Every structure is written in C-alpha cells, then in structure tokens.
Amino acid sequence: MPASGYCANGKVDSAWRPTRSHFFQGQLLYRVVKNGEQECYFSTAADLPNNSSSIIFTTACCERIKFLKQEKQNCHLHLRISVESGGCSGFQYNFSIEENSQPDSENDYVVEQEGVTVVYDRISGEFLRGATVDFVEEMIRSSFVVHNNPNVEVGCGCGVSFSPKVGR
Questions:
Q1: CB-CB contact of 148 with 155 (8 Å)
Q2: For residue range 17-50, what is the model confidence (pLDDT) as tens digits?
Q3: In terms of CATH, what superfamily is 56-164?
Q4: Where are the beta strands (DSSP E) in the chain?
Q5: For residues 87 and 94, what is the distance between their CA atoms, to the nearest angstrom?
Q6: Of residues 20, 83, 14, the one with CA closest to residue 56
Q7: 148-157: per-residue pLDDT in tens?
Q8: Where are the domains of the chain?
Q9: For the chain, what is the mean pLDDT?
Q10: What is the DSSP letter of 125?
Q11: What span, in angstroms and rounded, lies between the C-alpha atoms of 96 and 78?
C-alpha cells in the first residue's frame, strides 16, 4: 500500500467519504468509501479528497452521536468540540454532549453529517482545520478523539492536549 494512498479504481472525487481510521503496518490510515462499495486509504488528512480545509468526522464518530441521541431520546442532541487553554501541552480538546442548547449563529460552525450535528466555535475551528474526529473504544476508555491534526506541533501522550504549530 503506497504511503500517499491506495484506491481500488485509482479515481477519487467528492463522492468519497471518510469513515474510520485504521492502522496498517504501524501507520495511521484513513479509510474512505464511495457509495458504500469501493474503498480507498490515505495516510494523511491533507490527502483526502476535498477535505483538506475542513474537519473530518468519521462514521464511528457519527454512529456514537446517533447512539447517544437514541439513548437519551433527544433528536436535538449534538456534539460540541472546543479547544481550550490547559493540559500538559498548552491546549486541550474538549468534547461535550449538548442536549438543549442552540448553536450561536455568529460564532459557531454547525456540521450536519449522517443524521447528526456537530458544533464548534470559529476559534476552535482554526485549531481543528484538517483534523479527523473519531470515536474509539479501547479497554481503558471509550471517547471521542482527534487524529492527525495538521495544526499540532507536539501532542501529549494521552492525546488530549497539544501545542499548536507556530505561525499557522
């Protein structure tokens, strides 16, 4: 599998959609699908078609939000992502589930994908641009996570805090 990407048919266009990240031979890869049939793998978020300037939400992330909406029986529930000062590296990701709040139309970006809503403020969006938001289930925790953020210089071992690149 080449480092930059692999596609079954060699063609990638805007119909490709990121689903989940995978590790292959020690490298994090993004799996994207087109019409639920063909698949393609990319080694960086910047290589993904038409998504280099936006935040990528995996199917696992969307499925978890759908599960929470169903569990709480609240169709207005959404995920809010923010970047705040703190953590061992200077900034940290914060994920919260909001049940009855309305996004601020002047300061928030609202993304609707696969029947769910994700909200983030404009300042956080600058730190998250080009990153992938995923939901992972491990033995020690289940949580939303940010992968391959091109705006990060150094990240903490826990994956929650980071130091941004200077001069982004």
A1: no
A2: 444 444 444 444 555 544 445 455 554 444 444 4
A3: HesB-like domain (2.60.300.12)
A4: 5-7, 17-24, 27-34, 38-42, 56-57, 78-85, 91-98, 108-113, 116-121, 132-137, 142-147, 152-155, 161-164
A5: 11
A6: 20
A7: 888 888 877 7
A8: 5-47, 56-164
A9: 74
A10: H
A11: 8
Spatial contact of 4 and 47, defined as CB atoms under 8 Å apart = yes
| Block residue for tokens 């080449």 | 2
Q: How far is Cα of residue 96 from the mean position of the Cα atoms in its chain?
A: 14
- CA 101 – CA 80 distance, rounded (Å): 10
**Cα distance between the two ends of the chain:** 31
Q: What is the pTM of this model?
A: 0.67
Structure tokens at 141: 């925790």
Pairing assessment for the beta strands 152-155 and 116-121 based on DSSP bridges: unpaired
Radius of gyration of the chain (CA): 16
